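Q: What would this chain look like folded?
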Amino acid sequence: MGFLIDTSLWIDVERGRLSSADIYAITRQAPVYLSPINLAEIRYGIELMTDARRKQKASAMLRRMRRKPLLRISGATAEVFGVLAAGLAKAGRGHGFRVQDLWLAAQAVERKFTLLTANAKDFKDVPGLKFVAVNTPGA
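A: My prediction, written as C-alpha cells:
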C-alpha cells in the first residue's frame, strides 16, 4: 500500500495551507511517492513565472519534492491510462478531464495506491481508483 499526492496538495503544503502533519495523519506509516507528473506540473508552473522571487521559491520546492521516492511510468501504466481514458470517453467524459490527472490516476490504479487530492471532482468517476479528498483550508 502506498500513496500518491496530487500536485495541488504539494503546493498547498509549500504555501502553508496544509502541514506535513496533515498529510501524515492520513498516510501514517504508508509510503508516499512522487510522480513524474507532479514534477512536470511544477516545472511547467516555474517556467511560466516571471517574478524572480516566486520562481526561486518554487524551484526550492521542486528540489525538496525530488527527495521523495519517484514512481516510474511504465508500459503497464500506459496501458492502464489507455483503458481509463477510453472508459471515460465512452462515458461522455472524454473532454472534461485533465490528462495529467488521468496519468496520476493510472499510476495509482496500477499499483493499488490511494491518491490524495483536494480536487475530488477530477477523480470521482475514474474506475478502480481509491482516493481521499483532503479539505484545504483557505483554498
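Strands lie at 3-5, 32-33, 114-117, 130-133.
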